[in-house]
Design goal:
With about 700 residues, the chain is of the alpha/beta class. About 40% of the residues lie in helices and about 10% in strands. It comes from Nothobranchius furzeri.
Length: about 700
């Protein structure tokens, strides 16, 4: 802040319980020492330290006891060296208790009376802030200029007390001179802007890395100040604060006389400020900075020393046969070690996590292409055989661009995890991980659409009115999610990231006939089965779906090749009939009895295959006509990609009209039962499905 020309730091974190919830309690000697250090550090750097207290949730304004406790608390902080204060009455109920109703004419009157008394008690400090309960235009009744609450504040609050204001909304898209004139008039003083442009505490899936924007620099002369409420994550605030400093210096005399005409900073340009901030941030991003060096706490990463007896995260244990496990993905390498983030990747990162009311260029392109491809999927769909070739080429060209951007997002995740600055990793990882997973599903969906497999999918209208950013959750990741057929099922997309980040590069795509699926990914109880033919397990467990329902088969792969698959059946009834008509006869031909020793084995094998495709109760298939089987290698590090793989299949099934899907799990497979339950599957049948003991879980789509 000192480096970038900022001059004020307001302390009001809600995780300091004595700021809001326990505001009556004084700080302990240890807490006093920490606050004293923070206050002294700010003052040594020329920064004004403002201590904020938020007593509004339960204060009794007419209580002399509460007023005494409030004075005691602020006097304690004052004795620590603090010379600037704020009283916050935001986000509280307007109602008053009976005692307050009898003592004061209005809620505003109660707040103003207490605030004025505290201000005088502290010796009328030069900086004393008051946050009203109606702190933005959208919270005023009936409007800012006609609000009785604000009128009382303007008339009765002592004139040297500064009033906090956030703009027309809690998170204002723009701040202009015209928008501030109304509130300045009713408050009878210039306001101080509490700017929530980069605040992200209302949505755990959103991060704001974009520049300070939408605030006319000319408003500075009509304000008593501007405070930027930052992202919760420390490392995410480099660009917001850097560009705020640029905005603050705009039009001021340049004491160094560098790079500007007449020694004055030129007009503020958000894009130019962003470029300057990116240049400086790049240096810090690629510095080997550990989080414990900044916060004093030891954090374990996936590069921690290997513990004996434990598999290395991201490594492969045991021997794998077939499946192309030694091949790397085309054009991709293993992301390990302390890599460097490129400028293009940092710009991509910022563009995907830009501002609450505005996406960056990369995010706009991602959403526009996905919307267009989904809306025009009929051009390449099963019903679009008569489509003009140029239209098909246009669809496939935009699909190629979209898939490339999704790959860049996956590579960005890989680079952030493998980057040198571990402090940045731990702050940004949940967001890049979340978007990586959502992009994997979207990429698989577009690949699936491009295989002429979509029949009945209709587009979703996402148009809406201008509202606060929290009206639509999830940012870019949430918008991509809602563009998918299964997007309203939030339990498929919102999960905490794994404890140990992995830099493995994953891909999800539709099954190709040339794929080999490793038998180690099939049912565990069959892996030790002695067979006379190497294809037996695959033919029994995977063969029917891959042969008769390949359009609902998706593959998970990493740098070494295939590491998971999910198989789906859209209509179990018709699938069972097709199995009896074509698959079972083909298996009889493939495994004919060749002698007395193999005759019984072959008969048992065919019988098991028939039982595998046995009938399910009509009561089940009425609500859950589709079926799935999910398999992955046991040493898969990031279990979230298994969830993402399953979500890709559910997206395809939903797109083609399925209303529900079920999965049969062995009752002893507790890990899989828990996994599916977290994704919205509920137990439907137990011990009644087919002739085997199995638990049938289902979920509606």
């Amino acid at each position: 802040m000192q480096l970038w020309g900022l001059n004020t730091y307001l302390y009001g974190p809600k995780d300091d319980l004595k700021h809001r919830l326990l505001w009556r309690e004084v700080y302990s000697p240890e807490e006093e020492a920490q606050l004293r250090t923070l206050i002294a550090e700010a003052q040594s750097r020329g920064l004004r330290f403002v201590y904020a207290l938020s007593p509004g949730q339960d204060i009794v304004f007419s209580s002399s006891c509460d007023l005494t406790l409030l004075k005691r608390k602020l006097k304690q902080v004052s004795d620590l060296g603090c010379q600037a204060f704020a009283i916050l009455f935001d986000d509280i109920d307007h109602s008053m208790c009976q005692a307050d109703s009898e003592a004061f004419t209005s809620f505003a009157h109660a707040q103003v009376t207490v605030t004025n008394e505290i201000y005088r008690f502290l010796g009328e400090p030069d900086v004393f802030l008051f946050c009203p309960t109606e702190y933005c235009g959208s919270l005023c009744s009936p409007s800012a200029s006609k609000s009785p609450y604000l009128q009382t504040v303007g008339e009765d609050l002592l004139p040297d007390i500064t009033v906090i204001w956030t703009g027309s909304k809690v998170i204002s898209r723009k701040l202009s001179l015209d928008s501030l004139a109304e509130v300045e008039s009713v408050l009878q003083r210039p306001p101080l802007i509490w700017d929530n442009l980069h605040a992200n505490d209302y949505d755990s899936r959103r991060l704001f890395l974009g520049p300070f924007k939408g605030r006319d620099p000319q408003i500075r002369s009509h304000l008593r100040g501007l405070l930027l409420n930052p992202n919760c994550e420390f490392e995410a605030n480099y660009i917001p604060l850097h560009t705020l400093g640029d905005w603050h210096r705009t039009g001021k005399e340049d004491v160094n006389g560098e790079g500007t005409e007449g020694g004055t900073v030129c007009e503020y340009c958000p894009e130019r400020a962003l470029t300057a901030a990116l240049t400086d941030w790049m240096e810090e991003l690629n510095q080997p900075l550990q989080r414990e060096a900044r916060e004093g706490e030891k954090m374990r990463s996936h590069q921690q020393p290997h513990q004996p007896g434990q598999p290395l995260p991201g490594s492969r244990s045991g021997a794998l046969t077939g499946g192309g496990r030694t091949q790397k993905l085309p054009g991709r390498g293993v992301c390990g070690g302390k890599g460097m983030l490129s400028e293009a990747q940092v710009r991509l990162l910022v563009g995907l996590h830009y501002l609450p009311h505005e996406h960056g260029p990369s995010a706009q392109k991602l959403l526009q292409d996905l919307t267009w491809l989904k809306t025009n999927c009929h051009l390449v769909g099963a019903n679009g055989k008569k489509t003009q070739p140029q239209k098909v080429d246009e669809w496939r060209g935009r699909a190629s661009r979209f898939l490339s951007l999704c790959e860049d997002i996956a590579q960005l995740h890989c680079s952030v995890v493998g980057g040198a600055n571990r402090a940045v990793l731990y702050d940004l990882y949940p967001y890049v991980w979340d978007l990586r997973n959502t992009a994997l599903v979207a990429k698989a969906f577009i690949c699936w659409l491009g295989k002429d497999t979509c029949r009945v999918f209709t587009s979703l209208d996402l148009s809406g009115v201008d509202s606060e950013p929290w009206a639509f959750k999830g940012g870019v990741s949430g918008e991509v999610q809602m563009l998918l057929p299964i997007g309203s099922s939030s339990e498929l997309f919102t999960h905490p990231p794994p404890l140990f980040p992995t830099s493995r590069l994953y891909n999800i795509r539709p099954y190709h006939s040339k794929d080999k699926v490793d038998e180690t990914m099939t049912i565990p109880s069959l892996q030790g089965e002695s067979t006379a033919h190497p294809d037996v397990i695959g033919d029994r467990c995977l063969g029917p779906c891959l042969a008769l329902s390949p359009e609902y088969s998706f593959i998970l792969e990493d740098e070494l090749g295939v590491c998971g698959c999910v198989l789906g059946i859209s209509d179990v009834r018709s699938f069972a009939k097709r199995c009896q008509a074509s698959w079972i006869p083909a298996m009889r031909d493939k495994y004919p009895p060749k002698g007395t020793n193999t005759h019984t084995y072959t008969q048992d094998l065919i019988r098991l295959m028939e039982e595998d495709q046995g009938e399910y109760p009509d009561s089940l298939l009425y609500h859950f006509p589709s079926q799935l089987r999910l398999d992955a290698l046991p040493e898969l590090v990031d279990v979230s990609v298994s969830r993402t793989l399953l979500t890709a299949l559910l997206t395809a099934l939903k797109a083609n009209g399925s209303q529900g899907v079920f999965c049969e799990v062995q009752p002893t497979d507790h890990q899989r039962l828990e996994f599916l339950t977290k994704l919205g599957f509920l137990e439907i049948l137990r011990g009644e499905a087919r002739s085997r003991e199995g638990v049938v879980l289902g979920r509606l789509l």
